[in-house]
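step=encode ok
step=design start
structure_in=
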């Protein structure tokens, strides 16, 4: 694989660390700012919505820039957002810093997915995208546990300073290793035209509901562990690391499976995620079972990412950049839906196991949307084959002079 993919993964590592780090720090942030844990959980939803809302417009604004220049500008914005978070004097300012970093997140992974796919042969696109996203998953193995430990030992602000340092390294990696390419052809209108396709919208909907179960669970995993499973606070980073190992393995596995067949990879990963959410609800009080299931849950969760991202690139062939960024936004709409709905169940007094049941229901919705999308894709393929056959017959008749 080209070295440029590893450069993309370095920045993805920093972005993944800042995205997921809040989950392990929710109790500390809630205590420091005098808010409830569900209110502190809105920092997850706010970030997710920032990705969804900010990514596509930033991608459009930078659409005429060389993609390397765009990636560098986004890393500067990411660093600035985390600086503001580290210095935040209030919950509101911290939310603003999170949203700024989220704006960079959405556009970075959207543009980065297209760059990664362009660096390799067509049959390796999903694996290349998966390699870039490996930085995001490794953040859960190394960045998030380290950041959680730093936050518990030195205060949560130190965690954001750590993320700033990772962002600077990521910027340097993109600057040094990502090749310069000509500016993308076409313009905003060409990119927007892709959204006339029903297949693109179904692909985005698959992403929203197929990935929502992940954040329904992981947003409240710390209180689920301590209040239901009887874990100590010090065990949270260890379990988060197990979850992160699952993410890394699942991401790479999802890339390999998607290179073979995209839709079956989506059906299998979302289906497994749904089943594991229900199992987690049933075994939440058994510490050993909890650790095993949360690792498998991470595997299933990120096995969805390469096929879902590849499906959007397939549906938006010819003008993929904006659709790719929109799909990163769709992932984070799913994140917001998952964390918000799970928070509602906690606020309703259903306890900290309720997020796992919520994840199961969201997974069923994801499977239903995937089934509709699969049928639509099959109809489009059949229609295109019939059109090509008709064109071939017409051409043959023209050459032979037959009526």
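sequence_out=
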């Amino acid at each position: 694989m080209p070295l440029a993919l590893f450069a993309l993964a370095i920045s993805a590592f920093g972005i993944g660390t800042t995205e997921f780090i809040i989950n392990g720090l929710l109790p500390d942030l809630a205590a420091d700012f005098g808010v409830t844990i569900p209110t502190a959980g809105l920092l997850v939803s706010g970030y997710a919505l920032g990705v969804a809302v900010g990514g596509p417009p930033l991608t459009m604004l930078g659409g005429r820039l060389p993609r390397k220049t765009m990636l560098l500008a986004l890393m500067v914005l990411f660093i600035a957002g985390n600086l503001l978070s580290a210095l935040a004097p209030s919950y509101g300012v911290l939310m603003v810093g999170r949203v700024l970093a989220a704006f960079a997140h959405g556009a970075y992974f959207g543009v980065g997915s297209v760059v990664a796919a362009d660096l390799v042969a067509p049959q390796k696109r999903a694996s290349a995208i998966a390699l870039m996203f490996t930085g995001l998953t490794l953040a859960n193995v190394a960045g998030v546990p380290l950041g959680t430990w730093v936050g518990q030992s030195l205060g949560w602000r130190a965690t954001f300073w750590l993320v700033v340092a990772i962002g600077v390294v990521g910027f340097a990696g993109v600057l040094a290793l990502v090749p310069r390419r000509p500016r993308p052809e076409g313009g905003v209108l060409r990119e927007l035209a892709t959204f006339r396709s029903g297949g693109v919208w179904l692909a985005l909907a698959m992403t929203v509901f197929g990935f929502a179960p992940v954040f329904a669970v992981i947003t409240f995993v710390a209180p689920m562990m301590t209040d239901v499973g009887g874990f100590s606070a010090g065990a949270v980073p260890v379990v988060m690391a197990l979850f992160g190992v699952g993410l890394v393995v699942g991401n790479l596995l999802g890339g390999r499976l998607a290179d073979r067949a995209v839709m079956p990879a989506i059906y299998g990963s979302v289906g497994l995620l749904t089943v594991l959410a229900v199992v987690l609800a049933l075994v939440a009080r058994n510490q050993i079972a909890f650790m095993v299931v949360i690792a498998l849950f991470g595997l299933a969760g990120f096995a969805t990412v390469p096929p879902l991202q590849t499906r959007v690139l397939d549906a938006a062939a010819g003008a993929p950049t904006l659709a790719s960024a929109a799909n990163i936004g769709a992932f984070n709409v799913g994140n917001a839906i998952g964390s918000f709905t799970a928070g509602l169940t906690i606020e309703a007094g259903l306890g900290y196991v309720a997020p796992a049941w919520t994840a199961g229901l969201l997974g069923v919705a994801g499977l239903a949307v995937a089934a509709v999308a699969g049928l639509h894709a099959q109809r489009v393929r059949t229609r295109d084959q019939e059109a090509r056959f008709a064109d071939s017959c017409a051409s043959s008749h023209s050459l032979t002079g037959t009526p």
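step=design ok
step=annotate ok -> The chain has a mean pLDDT of 84.
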